[in-house]
Design a protein that fits this description.
About 65% of the residues lie in helices and about 0% in strands. It is mainly alpha-helical. The protein folds into two domains: about 1-45 and about 130-315, MFS general substrate transporter like domains (Growth Hormone, Chain: A, Up-down Bundle); about 330-535, MFS general substrate transporter like domains (Growth Hormone, Chain: A, Up-down Bundle), CATH 1.20.1250. Keywords: Cell membrane, Glycoprotein, Ion transport, Membrane, Mitochondrion, Nucleus, Transmembrane, Transmembrane helix, Transport.
């Protein structure tokens, strides 16, 4: 009775069939990146807005004012009074009536002196030159309501977190491809509702659901791909990340061509309907079928894979075995009960949290720093492509731990330098910031690999799921940290990012090097592997190193 890996090797570990399925599912990385980073363009600050004085609409209609003329009568007095436009969240505390002059309406108030005019906080009656350009103008997310933009992105990440647990469990129980297709359908439908709702609460509810289903598409496509290829999954995981980066580079082009936030929302949501056609071309994971004791279906799929790969699968195969062992009802205590497991778990949880917070913070920061948003966003995405190449070049030559640490430290130092560079040297500021984005991208991609290699088979799925959930927690916090601290000082978030990244870089030096190490099967294996390494993960020379490269 052959094992699944033996049958897969005979059918072709990465033949024409797997390459086709791999390419099709990788497109999910593009649409998921659209959802992940869309807030930068959906929530772009309006070019111009002001608070309308009560009665101004009626007076404007009677006098035949343009919006610019009405703005002059509303905003100009504030600028003359304060010497700037810093009082944009306030308005003149007057009520215009139809008896005032169309040419000098303010002479009716304050004895003709703008300095005598009272001010009051504006609660509503906002006017925008481009009323549907972003969700800020659509739902009046300005001044005292500005924090609601942060909330919208936090809600999306909360959806990611929820989807990781609920749909991850559903994919294990009901099948990979079923949950993938339902998730694609959910993303598309929820995206349409988000685009057309006029109520902000409804917007948040369906943005949460879109995030939940979006995480379902991303997780299940990754799992399907890794389960139908051979044991070497490093290139597979990195290439999927490359498609995510391609989506980051495409998104500004969509936003440039589509002038309204509703149009952008539809453009990034509707492609998910196309993935429903995968029902006829992407099979269920044969590994999953075997774990559910559906060996006949799994064998049928393997014969189909072999046929498309130009291979021949022996007709004598009547059953396939798969060896797997799981801890019944694993808990967090299983991950921290022994010294090495406890160290690995706590450091990996922090690494996931810091990487996600910094990465998402740097992405969203592009929307508030000025400059050419579309070009800057494209460049910041393009710089992620060399990250994958650097990882491929380094992890099998010098290991994982050192590139993991260096990428975090470089990102931290780059963020710190960027914060204090003068604005009159934009090319240097952009270059250093780009280096920081490259570093954190590498760190974010390496943590995927290291997390898998440091946990035993008996706890691997649970351990990776728990640690990576801190990624979504970092995403929930990122918008509040970025936008609220940037309101105090634009560069203050970079200082926080710098501290988080450098601390992460130092901590990962405490992890053991996993280059060439066989995947541990039990907790005892993890402890034994760790005993081969001294302080800061260096291998002890007096230990037997036959299991290492």
């Amino acid at each position: 009775m052959p094992s699944f890996d033996e049958v897969l090797k005979e059918a072709g570990e990465f033949g024409r069939f797997q390459k086709r399925v791999f390419f099709l599912l990788c497109q999910t990385g593009i649409t998921f990146s659209f959802l992940f980073a869309s807030v930068v363009f959906l929530g772009r600050a309006p070019d111009s807005y002001w608070c309308r004085i009560p009665g101004a609409a009626e007076l404007s209609e009677r006098c035949g004012w343009t919006l610019e003329e009405e703005q002059n009568f509303t905003v100009l007095p504030l600028q003359l009074r304060n010497g700037s436009s810093s009082e944009e969240c306030k308005r003149l505390d007057v009520v215009w009536d139809t008896s005032v002059s169309c040419t000098s309406p303010l002479t009716h108030y304050g004895n003709g002196s703008t300095g005598d005019l009272p001010l009051t906080a504006c609660r509503d009656n906002w006017v925008y030159k481009q009323p549907h350009s972003s969700i800020i103008s659509e739902y009046n997310l300005v001044c005292s309501n500005a924090w609601m933009l942060d909330l919208s992105q936090a809600i999306l990440n909360l959806g990611f977190l929820t989807g990781a647990f609920t749909l991850g469990y559903a994919a294990d129980r009901y099948g990979r491809i079923l949950i993938y297709l339902l998730s694609c359908l959910g993303v598309a439908i929820c995206g349409i509702i988000v685009a057309f709702t006029s109520n902000f609460t409804v917007f948040l509810i369906f943005r949460f659901l879109q995030g939940m289903f979006g995480k379902g598409t991303w997780m299940t496509c990754y799992v399907i791909v890794t389960e139908i290829v051979g044991s070497d999954q490093r290139i597979v995981g990195i290439v999927i990340q490359i498609f995510f980066t391609l989506g980051i580079m495409i998104l500004p082009g969509i936003a440039y061509l589509v002038p309204t936030w509703q149009g952008i929302q539809l453009a990034i949501s509707l492609p998910n309907f196309l993935f429903l056609f995968y029902y006829w071309v992407v099979p269920e994971s044969p590994r999953w079928l075997l774990t559910r004791k559906k060996g006949e279906k799994a064998l049928k799929i393997m014969h189909n894979i072999a046929k498309h790969n130009g291979k021949y699968l022996s007709p004598h195969y009547s059953e396939i075995t798969i060896s797997y062992e799981e801890v019944s009802n694993p808990s967090f205590l299983d991950l921290v009960r022994t010294p090495a497991m406890r160290r690995n778990t706590l450091i990996l949880m922090y690494a996931w949290f810091a990487s996600a917070l910094i990465y998402q913070g740097l992405v969203m920061r592009l929307g508030i720093v000025g400059g050419n948003l579309y070009l800057d966003f494209f460049i910041s995405g393009a710089v992620e492509l060399p990250a994958a190449l650097l990882i491929l070049v380094t992890i099998d030559r010098i290991g994982r731990r050192l590139p993991f640490a260096i990428s975090n430290i470089v990102a931290g130092i780059a963020c710190l330098i960027t914060a204090f560079l003068p604005e009159d040297i934009p090319w240097l500021k952009t270059t250093v910031a780009t280096l920081g984005r490259l570093g954190i991208t590498m760190a974010f991609e390496i943590v995927y690999l290291v997390n898998t290699e440091l946990y035993p088979t008996t706890l691997r799925n649970f351990g990776v799921s728990l640690c990576s959930s801190l990624c979504d927690l970092g995403g929930i916090i990122a918008p509040f940290l970025l936008f609220r601290l940037a309101a105090v000082w634009l560069e203050l978030p970079l200082i926080i990012f710098s501290i988080l990244a450098v601390v992460c870089g130092l901590l990962v030096l405490l992890l053991p090097e996993t280059k060439g190490m066989s995947l541990p099967e039990t907790v005892e294996d993890v402890e034994r592997f760790s005993s081969h390494f001294g302080k800061c993960g260096k291998k002890r020379k007096h230990q037997d190193t036959n299991s290492y490269i």
